[in-house]
Structures are given as structure tokens and as C-alpha cells.
Amino acid sequence: MVKNFRIRELGNREKKIKRNKLAINIQEGRFKRVLFLPTYIYLAVMVIFPLFFTLIISFSNFSLGQPFSFNGVENYWSLFKCGNFWLVVGNTFIITISAVSIQMILGIIIGVLLFQKLPLFGFFRIIIFIPMMLAPLVVSYFWKFLLDPSIGLINYFWTLLGGENISWFTSPILSKVAVIIVDTMQWTPLIVLLTLAGLGTIPENLVEAANLEKASIMMKFRHIYLPSLRMPLLLGLLLRTIDCLKLFDVPYILTGGGPGDYSTTITLLGYREAFKFFQLGKASAIAWIILIIASVVATILVNKIMPKKKVEKVHMGL
């Protein structure tokens, strides 16, 4: 009898201990979730609400000073059947593809050269990273002065060499070229930085062995550098592609979207509809078109970035 009583008592104690542990785990889990409450509130107010609000008014003729009424997909349909809209979409993709391609190529070349640790290359690293640290507003106004057809330094030196004055802001082609040049000069340092970060993960013994074997830069790049650069460069490609798809400040300051709409981007078109013509419904439709395009492109690039092998899940303790 005594033995059975002790067994029951031990069993009751174990049950109490398990219940206490369960209660403690539940309390800790609730406390951890409470710590995330400010973040949830911020996301709801600053992201989720504006997102769904713009989605709702994109199906309306919402305009300042006009009565609110839904018009279905009229905003989207009016954009799709407008030839000017497809010109703007084409401009956006031309600028994005050209700028990102040039930035990736230049960034890799400059990054590999800076990784060679030659004399004075530390000084050049500081100089190269300066444009990336400046505001796009400052960079755009700086280049607007340099490219000015009447007082710009670039045209001045070009005419000294015997060339004709170049009208960067009045040519349908050169206006896009000017936007590409400015965006490339500012954000190529980001690709250089990512390239140097990827090269910094390479074991030094591999580089030393390649140097002892007198391998060329192309051989080292193909067999040693490139495998370590895959993830950083794909990340840079993702960031720069999304950023260029919603490019606004450079064409707005540099060319104003002109001549005509030959350097207008989708974001600049949405800005005009919202703050110049006060067509907030149509501007919201443009914003959602930008979101859909950027999401599709981001999904494709993320699938390239993510490793093919299964990755073990990490328990976050939440």
C-alpha cells in the first residue's frame, strides 16, 4: 500500500511539473509575441492599410474635388489602351535593363581590380564609394549641371576637342542615355561593394595557390572568384532591378520626363496623374501595375537566388 501511494504521489508530481512547464512556455510565447506588437501596428498603419486603400481607389474615379464612385477596371483599361502608357513602360524597361547590365559589368570589373590589393587601391576604394553615399537628389542636380548643353562642363570639353554641342535633354534617345549614365554612376559602387564582400569570403590559400601557379585573372575569376560571387551578385541584381523599375528622382530632376514622354518612367507617370492632374484613382492603378511588375521580376530573381538544396529550418523560439 505504501509503495502504491508513493508511486501515485510521484506521478502527481510529474504531472504538476509538466503542467507548470507548459504554463511557463505558453506565457513566454505570449510575451515574445507581445514584443512584436509595435512592429505589427507599424506594418498595419504604414504598409497594409495604404496598400489596400490604393487597391480600392484604383477601381474608382477618385479625384480631388469630385464625388467618389466606383468605375470597375476603367482606370486599368484606359491605361492599357493608351499608346503613351506603353511608351512609358518601354522607357522603364529600357532604362532598367541598360542601367542594371552596365552596373553589373562595371561593378564586377572594378571589384576584381580592387581586390588585387595594388598600391593606392585603398584610396580608390574611398573615392568609388562616395556617389553611393550621396542623395539621388544631389547626384541628379550635379549631373544636370555637367550635362547642360549651354554651360555644362562635358559639352565644353567636348567642343574643345572639335565635337558638336550635344543636346542631352532634347533628344528622345540621349535623354534616356543621360538617365542611364546618372543612375550607373551612382549605383555601380553598390555592385563593387557586393563584389568585394563576395571575394572576401574566398580562402587565402586558394588565391595564393593560384598566384604560385601564375594563373591569369580570367582563370582566377572563372574558377575561384565566380563561385563566391554568385549569391552577392544575384542579390545586387535583385535590388538594382527593383530600384530601377520604380525610378523617379533621376528622370524627374534631369529631364522632367522629356522630351515629350521619351524619358518618362512608370513612377513619374503616376506622380503626374496624382499631383498634377489629381487623378488619384488612375495614379493608384499605376502604382499597382508597378507593384505587380516588380513582384513578378522579384519572384523570378529570388528563385534564382535561393539554393536548390533543402535548407534545414532554424527554430526562432517563437
Description:
It is a single chain. The protein has 318 residues and is mostly helical. Helices cover 74% and strands 0% of the residues. The chain has helices spanning 2-35, 37-57, 74-80, 83-114, 121-133, 136-146, 153-160, 172-199, 204-212, 217-245, 249-254, 266-275, 280-305. Helix 5 packs across helix 8. 23% of the residues are buried.
Ranges with pLDDT <50 over ≥5 residues?
Answer: 314-318
Strand content: under 5%
Give the overall average pLDDT. 82
Structural class: mainly alpha
The tally of beta strands, per DSSP, is 0
Named at the architecture level, the CATH assignment is: Orthogonal Bundle
| Oligomeric status | single chain
Q: Secondary-structure element sequence?
A: HHHHHHHHHHHHH
User: Ends: how far apart?
Assistant: 46 Å
Notable characteristics:
318 residues; mainly alpha; MetI-like fold; disordered C terminus
Summarize the structure.
By secondary structure, this protein is mainly α.
Q: What layout of secondary structure does this protein have?
A:
Blueprint (H helix, E strand, L loop, with lengths): L1 H34 L1 H21 L16 H7 L2 H32 L6 H13 L2 H11 L6 H8 L11 H28 L4 H9 L4 H29 L3 H6 L11 H10 L4 H26 L13
Helix pairs in contact: 4-8, 4-10, 5-8, 8-10, 10-13, 12-13
